[in-house]
Specification:
Bound molecules: NADPH dihydro-nicotinamide-adenine-dinucleotide phosphate
Number of domains: 2
Domain GFO/IDH/MocA-like oxidoreductase: 190-308
Helix content: 25-40%
Radius of gyration: 20 Å
Pfam family, one: GFO_IDH_MocA_C3
Strand content: 15-25%
CATH superfamily of the largest domain: NAD(P)-binding Rossmann-like Domain
CATH architecture of the largest domain: 3-Layer(aba) Sandwich
Number of helices: 9
Domain Gfo/Idh/MocA-like oxidoreductase N-terminal: 58-181
GO molecular function, one term: oxidoreductase activity
Keywords: Oxidoreductase, Signal
CATH class of the largest domain: Alpha Beta
């Protein structure tokens, strides 16, 4: 099968480096089917449309902002199974530069007004939605209705109901829905997940996840500073802690015991920091902390016979895993996003399970809403 023969030398190097450290695990190894504890799974995926195997998937980026230009478009150049072939934007003035830089045909370039015409474009297999969180539902549903597989950035959407609409639209159209949880594809993080699955240090006794950066408070005229657009620490960074605790423990919490949010003092102001405590079915608890004004970054798992952690847990480069008995989980990979996109492309080409499907990410949004409710009411909230 063509995908087994790496054609991109840089990509081959990345794979070989990971394989040399014993950290290259098969896609789909992490629980993301209906039986896995960290998976959502209540919505079985129908048999998806499968493009001809052996060809690269044509990717159209929707939303030409910071993450698309700084990370995803460059990372697509390093992939083995994807090709950046299309652009969708609300700012047509951005198109000439992107078309020149990435050799994109004019007929593969769309605006939000014309994007539904992409249904007739056989060169595009996937639409990657990279826009403010509050817009993910609408753009993803439109992408699915155009018959294209959907990759959507984190956090998946504002509410579990919006997530479900995205899942339903993809199911109806026979396309896959992957969320851009790059850490779930990252080889060192996958090694940590293996330690939990194998109970390598015995049964778990606790966990914490912290993700924050010491920036300036987001301005009111930018979507990251607007609560109803999905700005704020909990959605933007906290989703890494919620998702990290899910894959790190392979458990889903049953309640938010308590939560606190420090919010901007203005209408529609976002949370600058959020702290929370989750409880699991066996009574174990985990602590989460997230911020857009304070720096911290780690995922730590305690077990009866030791601990293991990622510190830091989610920068683009330099994630590092270690254990209480002195093991280092492996060197960081040079480019997380290219691994993520190739994994997702292979799942489409081979008709296999996604590592981070919408059904899994919907669980995290349910937890986020429960954290907000607990912070607002001062009470424990069942999930
Ligand atoms: P930016 O603000 O830099 O870009 C967002 C882009 O979305 C805009 O440039 C615009 O592109 C498009 N857009 C569509 N509708 C709107 C709207 N109503 N208001 C503003 N912009 C709109 O954000 P980022 O690129 O940093 O983030 C985009 C998404 O990617 C978010 O969901 C974020 O959480 C996620 N992200 C994920 C990261 C990861 O590591 N996985 C890292 C960073 C972000 P255009 O002008 O082309 O229409």
């Amino acid at each position: 099968m063509p995908h087994k023969t790496p054609s991109n030398p840089r990509r081959q190097f990345l794979r070989q480096s990971a394989a040399a450290t014993g950290l290259l695990l098969a896609p789909g190894l992490i629980g993301c089917n209906s039986s896995g504890p960290a998976s959502a799974g209540e919505d079985p995926e129908p048999a998806p449309r499968r493009p001809d195997q052996g060809r690269k998937l044509g990717i159209a980026i929707l939303g030409l902002g910071g993450y698309a230009s700084g990370q995803i478009a460059p990372a697509l150049q390093l992939t083995e199974h994807c090709e950046l072939r299309g652009l969708i934007t609300g700012s047509p003035e951005k198109l000439p530069e992107w078309q020149r830089k990435y050799n994109i045909k004019k007929e593969n370039s769309y605006t939000y007004d014309t994007m539904d015409e992409i249904a007739d474009n056989a060169e595009i297999d996937v639409i990657y939605v990279i826009t403010p969180t509050a817009t993910h539902r609408d753009f993803s549903v439109r992408a699915a209705n155009a018959g294209k597989h959907v990759w959507c950035e984190k956090p998946m959407a504002m509410t579990p109901e919006e997530c479900q609409e995205m899942i339903d639209a993809c199911n109806r159209n026979g396309v896959k829905l992957a969320i851009g949880y790059r850490m779930m594809h990252e080889p060192n993080t996958r090694k940590l997940i293996e330690l939990t699955k194998e109970k390598a240090y015995g049964p778990l006794t606790g966990a914490h996840a912290y993700a924050g950066y010491a920036g300036s408070p987001p301005p009111a005229d930018y979507w990251r500073g607007q609560r109803d657009m999905g700005g704020g620490a909990l959605y933007d960074m906290g989703v890494y802690t919620v998702n990290g605790l899910a894959y790190g423990t392979q458990l889903q919490p049953v309640a938010v015991v308590k939560a606190e949010q420090r919010r901007q003092d203005r209408p529609n102001g976002v949370d600058l920091t959020t702290t929370y405590t989750l409880r699991y079915p066996d009574g174990m608890t985990a602590e989460g902390k997230t911020s857009v004004v304070e720096d911290y970054n780690e995922l730590h798992i305690d077990a009866e016979n030791g601990w293991y952690e990622m510190d830091p847990m989610q920068p683009y480069t330099g994630v590092k895993g270690s254990t209480s008995d002195g093991k280092v989980l492996g060197p960081p990979v040079p480019n997380q996003q290219s691994i993520q996109m190739d994994d997702d492309a292979l799942a489409i080409l081979n008709g296999t399970e996604l590592i981070a499907p919408g059904t899994l990410a919907k669980h995290d949004i349910r937890v986020i809403r429960a954290i907000i409710e607990s912070a607002e009411t001062g009470r424990e909230v069942k999930i």
